[in-house]
Amino acid sequence: MFEFRLPAPGAATKALVGGICWIACLQAAVAQHVAQLAWPGYSRSTDAISYLGITECGPFRDVLFSDTVYVCSPLHDVLNGSMILLGILVSAGLWLTYSVWRGSSWSRWGARLLGLGGAGIVLSGLWSADENLLLHGVGAALYLGIANLGIAMIGIGEFRRNRLYALFTCAMGLTGFLGFVAFGSQFLLGMGRGSVERFAAYPSLIWLILSGMLIGVGAAAARRRDQRQLAASQAATGRVAS
């Protein structure tokens, strides 16, 4: 089990709610799958995730890859809405679980970078690639690049406390960050742009969901422990008073 310190009263309850927020990030994968199903010609391998959020049907100039692709995503609002919700869940979960990451400076700074990534994905959801490519791109870079770097830093910070969890965290963060670098530099290793972008996007999502589960379990156990201690203290006080 992932163990962590809860330095302040009420931190266990906050951490539990924060863990639930991160588990709820699963909605982004569900929304993406639903949006893909509504576009029969969409390819996870060759089409970027951002194409699912483009609001108009027709030719779209992909500036990054210097080509023009045909896009038509009937459920673009579902994809964009899920991105906004993802950013809110990431940020809310981070705020509620912040006591978990206060153990080292690496974890604290990593958590701050993750928070920037949460703001970035909201930005990408608010402005699709065809509405404002600059803002969409900045938001995507914050989430795919900065957030993954932050996750890797959290892994370094957690190494002394839980080595297995730290290795998993570093692996997810570094995989996502390298995927971001490969996608941004068009170094696709023989794969389609969609596949490489998913190497950048999915590790952070997996980390958020599994970390939310671990934090939730640990926080629930901490709440039960605190309740038992409180009950024992009240019982002892009652015996002394009598």
Offer a concise description of the structure.
The protein has about 240 residues and is mainly alpha-helical.
Folded structure, characterized:
The protein is mostly helical. The chain is 68% helix and 4% strand. Strands 1-2 form a two-stranded antiparallel ribbon. Strand 1 (58-62) and strand 2 form a beta hairpin. Helix 3 runs antiparallel to helix 4 and helix 5 (133-157) packs across helix 7 (193-241). It is elongated, with a radius of gyration of 21 Å. The mean pLDDT is 89.
List the defining traits of the structure above.
single chain, 242 residues, mainly alpha, two-stranded antiparallel sheet, 2 strands
Strand content: under 5%
Average pLDDT across residues? 89
- Uncertain segments are none
Biggest β-sheet strands, sense, barrel: 2 strands, antiparallel
Helix and strand element order = HHEEHHHHH
Spatial ordering of strands, largest sheet: 1-2
Supply Rg: 21 Å
Based on secondary structure, the structural category is mainly alpha
